[in-house]
Amino acid sequence: TGAAAASDAARAERAAVLAEAPTVVRVSGLSKTYGGQTVLADLALDVAVGEVVALLGPSGSGKSTLLRCISHLEDWDAGHIVVDGQRLGYQAGGERMSPADLARERARVGVGMVFQQFNLFAHLSALENIAGPLRWVHGWTAERAEQRARELLARVGLSHRADALPRHLSGGQQQRVAIARAIAPGPRVLLMDEPTSALDPALVNEVLEVIRSLAQDGGLALVISTHQLHFAADVADRVVFLAGGRIVESGPAREVLTRPQHPQTARFLNVMA
Ligand code: ADP
Ligand code: MG
Fold it and tell me: Which residues form the signal peptide (predicted)?
């Protein structure tokens, strides 16, 4: 149909732009073990500016750990993670940074993170969940922080809930606040760890729509672990399939999802479909 042809053309144009785009996240040789168990094994992943990557894989395959390493919430054993040209997490002398230094560094370099369980500050309003960190972590003035927070609440369709506490918001609304909070300081990369899997099915779409609009805006790279295969096929430029801490398959989203090359990917897609 015309619409499908138009979207194929848009897809091809996006792919051409991304092929020329600089790398914003470079993961190389990343390895991590927990008590002798290998969780990430010599993993390499490059993400281009503005690229949308869907991270698929069975439970326990290492998706959360990978995202937590990229966002420097977690340490790793070997390998490098470079975000926006900067190798994070180490002092000039080569030793690891303290957690407090890491938090500041993370803010400076610009990795946003959205969690499955929203992780909003329970005692703060929707507005303050966004404006607060802009003041405390990023040093914005109160006025500028509030203005930015209101702008982002409007963007996720929650201007009318600015003063509500998280417990008075639905799960979908809470996750939209969490997304607004994560993008407020203007990160180059937004990592989302199963952003809809804690939601009632009826609330999934409102969150997917917000993510879709971020993806279409461009400029911001998104790495999303998800079990929403239709969403991945629709919105992701690339699918990366993880199993046992390794990338088993990676490629253009529609190709991997419709014609997986690796038996493990095919099995997973069969089970999920
Ligand atoms: P996924 O997000 O794909 O489900 P995870 O990254 O959460 O996978 O987990 C990968 C593996 O690491 C699993 O085997 C899990 O049990 C293990 N793991 C994750 N976090 C910890 C932890 N804090 N301590 C010990 N093992 C962990
Ligand atoms: Mg996980």
Answer: none
